[in-house]
Amino acid sequence: MGIKGKLEVEVDIKCHGDIFHELFSSKPHHVSNITPSKIHGCDVHHGEFGKPGSIIFWNYTLDGKKCVAKELVEAIDEKNKLVRFKIIEGDLLNEFNSFTIIVQVIPKDQITAVMWAIEFEKKHDEGHYPTRVMDFCVEVTRDIEAHHLKA
Ligand SMILES: CC[C@@H](C)C[C@@H](CC)C(C)C
C-alpha cells in the first residue's frame, strides 16, 4: 500500500470564523462566487447542503488545470466548527488512494485561525505530497477573508 500521511496548517484570519464554518458546512456553493477563478462551481449531487452524508461536486482549477472533486461530507461538527470532506471521485484520486480534507475554525484569544488538514495515502512512493492542494486551500482562505473584510 502507499504512503499514508497528514498535512496540517493554521491560517490566522481577520474576519469572524463563524463565516468560514457556515460557508464550508452549509454554503460551499458560495465559495465559487467569492473566488470564481479558483472554484468554478459547487453542486450537491446527493442529499442537501449542510447535511453529513451529502455528496457535493466541485469544479476548480489547480495549477492551471481544470479539475473536479466529488466529495462525501463525512462530518459536520457544529461544536468544534469542523467539516470533513472525503474525496470519492476526481483528479486527486489519480495520485492518491485516499484523500480527506478537514477544515476547522479555531477561536484563539485575540484572533481566529482556520486549520486545514489533508489526510492522504499516496498511490506511489515517488508521488508528490499534497502541498499544492494545501496552498490552494490557503489561497481560497485568503480570498474568503478579503471578500468579507471589504464587505
Ligand atoms: C482541492 C479540492 C477543493 C475542491 C477543496 C475545497 C474544500 C473542500 C476547496 C474549496 C478548498
From TrEMBL:
Pfam families: Bet_v_1. Residues 2-151 form the Bet v I/Major latex protein domain. InterPro entries: Bet_v_I/MLP, MLP-like_ligand-binding, START-like_dom_sf. GO terms for biological process: defense response. SUPFAM superfamilies: Bet v1-like. PANTHER family: MLP-LIKE PROTEIN 423. This is Bet v I/Major latex protein domain-containing protein.
